[in-house]
């Protein structure tokens, strides 16, 4: 029996899931200890409930996918609208070096997936599917490329396999980031846990805050600013839908969220540097953090965990190996190259989301860590741009070259 919930009920349940996540993290010491993001905790509870309903009562609960996409586009739009050229320059060398670390891992991810697929007697392209296509690319890339693998390369069930692999990455990426950062911070004594009366970090002025930094800081906004900001979001999302349809099948075809992000970057800097219009960063920040939490809750509560349970043994082996590879890479490569300091540890938490989940997971990971140990301005400058924009372009090129070679 299938139950299809509309957009309103999907939002209601997503808010409930966030409240459950907040309760779990603050009442279960192990979740707080390892910096598990609240949307991840609540979303996994909801996913387990839907799994039980499916297995025990043959009930499938389907949530509104369109409203989930809207919140995803709002999140990526907020990344773009926050990308002032001045703040982009702040990322500087750190952004370039971290992006190189991520690119190298994308190549290693595919090399491991393809090698294990061959070793286990599978088509090499299945190794690619369980590599950067799904783990770095996420559900959107898995769906888009899954069709190509099925129609052009004869990989039956590529879409289901891709969705299951992306689901695995989303879950593990959200659960792995906090513990990895905590291990590095405690092992090298990089920071102490902060203790405040209200549980909120003291924050500098808004002009000095990077996008998504200090998510629990109160932002003072007006109704007028909120309406104008919603207008900018509407322009960017409308442009994204238009370009996604217009570019379909063309050489410049890109995922919808990339168009939203690009429009946000262009609109922000035209208004700010050409028309000298003051941007409403506090509104953008509030909308961005709110849509991030709701999207992540919706994504996790929509997970069909029985897809993971149905994965064949060899595929589970590949995915577990990918997780181990990332953990070793973070410890021996990323952490050391990025400076072996607190910022480097937070960046490692973010890379868990970038290379083994999704950009919203990466942001949630670093927010969970900085809520416990204090701010990392550098991480909040680097992670959103790397995960939301640059890595998708790199991944698309790598996937295309790999298919050309192994296809």
From TrEMBL:
<feature type="transmembrane region" description="Helical">
    <location>
        <begin position="66"/>
        <end position="83"/>
    </location>
</feature>
<dbReference type="GO" id="GO:0015501">
    <property type="term" value="F:glutamate:sodium symporter activity"/>
</dbReference>
<feature type="transmembrane region" description="Helical">
    <location>
        <begin position="95"/>
        <end position="117"/>
    </location>
</feature>
<keyword id="KW-0915">Sodium</keyword>
<dbReference type="Pfam" id="PF03616">
    <property type="entry name" value="Glt_symporter"/>
</dbReference>
<feature type="transmembrane region" description="Helical">
    <location>
        <begin position="250"/>
        <end position="271"/>
    </location>
</feature>
<keyword id="KW-0997">Cell inner membrane</keyword>
<feature type="transmembrane region" description="Helical">
    <location>
        <begin position="226"/>
        <end position="244"/>
    </location>
</feature>
<protein>
    <recommendedName>
        <fullName>Sodium/glutamate symporter</fullName>
    </recommendedName>
</protein>
<comment type="similarity">
    <text>Belongs to the glutamate:Na(+) symporter (ESS) (TC 2.A.27) family.</text>
</comment>
<dbReference type="GO" id="GO:0005886">
    <property type="term" value="C:plasma membrane"/>
</dbReference>
<dbReference type="GO" id="GO:0015813">
    <property type="term" value="P:L-glutamate transmembrane transport"/>
</dbReference>
<feature type="transmembrane region" description="Helical">
    <location>
        <begin position="155"/>
        <end position="177"/>
    </location>
</feature>
<keyword id="KW-0813">Transport</keyword>
<feature type="transmembrane region" description="Helical">
    <location>
        <begin position="6"/>
        <end position="24"/>
    </location>
</feature>
<keyword id="KW-1003">Cell membrane</keyword>
<keyword id="KW-0769">Symport</keyword>
<keyword id="KW-1133">Transmembrane helix</keyword>
<keyword id="KW-0029">Amino-acid transport</keyword>
<feature type="transmembrane region" description="Helical">
    <location>
        <begin position="380"/>
        <end position="406"/>
    </location>
</feature>
<feature type="transmembrane region" description="Helical">
    <location>
        <begin position="36"/>
        <end position="54"/>
    </location>
</feature>
<comment type="function">
    <text>Catalyzes the sodium-dependent transport of glutamate.</text>
</comment>
<keyword id="KW-0472">Membrane</keyword>
<feature type="transmembrane region" description="Helical">
    <location>
        <begin position="283"/>
        <end position="306"/>
    </location>
</feature>
<feature type="transmembrane region" description="Helical">
    <location>
        <begin position="312"/>
        <end position="332"/>
    </location>
</feature>
<keyword id="KW-0739">Sodium transport</keyword>
<keyword id="KW-0406">Ion transport</keyword>
<dbReference type="InterPro" id="IPR004445">
    <property type="entry name" value="GltS"/>
</dbReference>
<keyword id="KW-0812">Transmembrane</keyword>
């Amino acid at each position: 029996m299938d139950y299809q919930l509309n957009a309103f009920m999907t939002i209601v349940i997503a808010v409930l899931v966030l409240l459950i996540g907040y309760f779990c993290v603050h009442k279960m010491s192990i979740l707080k200890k390892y910096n598990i993001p609240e949307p991840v905790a609540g979303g996994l509870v909801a996913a387990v409930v839907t799994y039980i309903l499916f297995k025990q009562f043959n009930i499938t609960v389907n949530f509104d996918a369109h409203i989930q996409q809207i919140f995803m586009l709002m999140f990526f739009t907020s990344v773009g609208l926050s990308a002032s050229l001045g703040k982009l320059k702040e990322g500087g060398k750190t952004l370039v070096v971290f992006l190189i670390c991520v690119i190298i891992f994308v190549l290693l991810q595919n090399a491991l997936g393809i090698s294990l697929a061959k070793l286990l007697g599978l088509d090499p392209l299945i190794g690619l599917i369980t590599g950067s296509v799904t783990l770095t690319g996420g559900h959107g890339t898995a769906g888009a490329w899954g069709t190509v693998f099925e129609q052009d390369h004869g990989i039956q069930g590529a879409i289901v396999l891709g969705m299951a692999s992306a689901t695995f990455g989303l879950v593990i990426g959200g659960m792995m980031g906090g513990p990895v950062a905590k291990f590095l911070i405690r092992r090298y004594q990089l920071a102490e846990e902060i203790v405040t009366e209200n549980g909120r970090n003291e924050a500098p002025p808004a002009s000095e805050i990077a996008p998504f930094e200090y998510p629990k800081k109160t932002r003072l906004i007006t109704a007028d600013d909120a309406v104008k900001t919603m207008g900018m979001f509407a322009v960017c999302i409308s442009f994204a839908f238009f370009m996604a349809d217009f570019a379909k099948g063309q050489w410049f075809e890109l995922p919808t969220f990339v168009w939203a992000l690009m429009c946000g970057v262009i609109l922000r800097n035209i208004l700010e540097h050409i028309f000298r219009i003051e941007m409403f960063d506090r509104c953008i920040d509030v909308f961005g953090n709110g849509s991030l939490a709701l999207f992540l809750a919706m994504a996790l509560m929509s997970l069909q965990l029985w897809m993971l349970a149905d994965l064949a043994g060899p595929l589970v082996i590949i995915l577990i190996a990918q997780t181990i590879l990332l953990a070793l890479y973070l410890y021996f490569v990323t952490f050391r190259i990025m400076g072996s300091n607190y910022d480097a540890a937070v960046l490692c938490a973010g890379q868990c989301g970038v290379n083994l989940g999704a950009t919203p997971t990466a942001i949630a990971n670093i927010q969970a860590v900085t809520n416990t140990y204090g701010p990392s301005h550098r991480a909040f400058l680097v992670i959103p741009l790397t995960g939301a924009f640059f890595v998708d372009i790199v991944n698309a090129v790598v996937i295309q070259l790999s298919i050309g070679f192994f296809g």
